[in-house]
Amino acid sequence: MTTSSSRPGGTHQAGERPPHRGRRDQGSAATELTIWTPLLILILLFVVSCGRLVQAQLRLSDAAHSAARAASLARDPASASRAATAAVQAALPGGGATCTHADVSVDTSTFVPGGSVTVTVTCSVKLGDLTPLSLPAGTGTQSTSFTSVIDTFRGVSPAGSS
């Protein structure tokens, strides 16, 4: 028994499977994978770079907090600046992937009992090493500040003496 079909492929015998109509779809999964894989890799690299920036910001905040606290415990503005710089170097050791270069700025203009000391830490975050190709922004600069109050009942030496 023969059945006629109006679709391409002609006739087929009763009980037989009709010819596969999706032959032109063969290989489309491989093509789609080829197209989507680079896009997925770019999305993954973007997520990693965002993670690196967030990690750098968290480490900078911790370093600025530690530096401001160390500076507020010093007896004079010069030793406050030295203590803040040492605290940042201890909190951000050796640069690494998070922070390639850190600059420390210490504001001791109100360094009196009850006053405050503000530490600003600026850092360069390297992003260009994520891929063999350079990312458009090879480095990102981040900055954070923290202010610590100097204890009211603490003795402070004058600016000129050590």
Radius of gyration: 32 Å
The strand count comes to 5
Helix content percent band: 25-40%
Unreliable residue runs: none
Assembly category: single chain
* Cross-sheet strand order for the largest sheet: 3-4-5
The tally of domains stands at 1
* Largest sheet composition: 3 strands, antiparallel
Mean pLDDT figure: 78
Separation of termini?
A: 111 Å
Shape: rod-shaped
Q: What fraction of residues sit in β-strands?
A: 15-25%
Number of helices: 2
Structural class: alpha+beta
The helix/strand order is: EEHHEEE
Compact summary:
The protein has one domain. The protein has helices at residues 28-72, 77-91; strands at residues 2-3, 12-13, 101-110, 116-126, 139-149. By secondary structure, the protein is an alpha+beta fold.
Keywords, separated by commas or semicolons:
162 residues; alpha+beta; three-stranded antiparallel sheet; rod-shaped
Question: Can you describe what's shown?
Answer:
With 162 residues, this protein is α+β, with helices and mostly antiparallel strands. The protein has one domain (32-149). It contains two helices and five strands, in the order E-E-H-H-E-E-E. The strands form two sheets. It has a three-stranded antiparallel beta sheet, with helices on one face. A two-stranded antiparallel ribbon has the order 1-2. Helix 1 (28-72) packs antiparallel against helix 2. The N and C termini lie far apart (111 Å).
Protein topology:
Layout: E1 2-3, E2 12-13, H1 28-72, H2 77-91, E3 101-110, E4 116-126, E5 139-149
Antiparallel strand pairs: 1-2, 3-4, 4-5
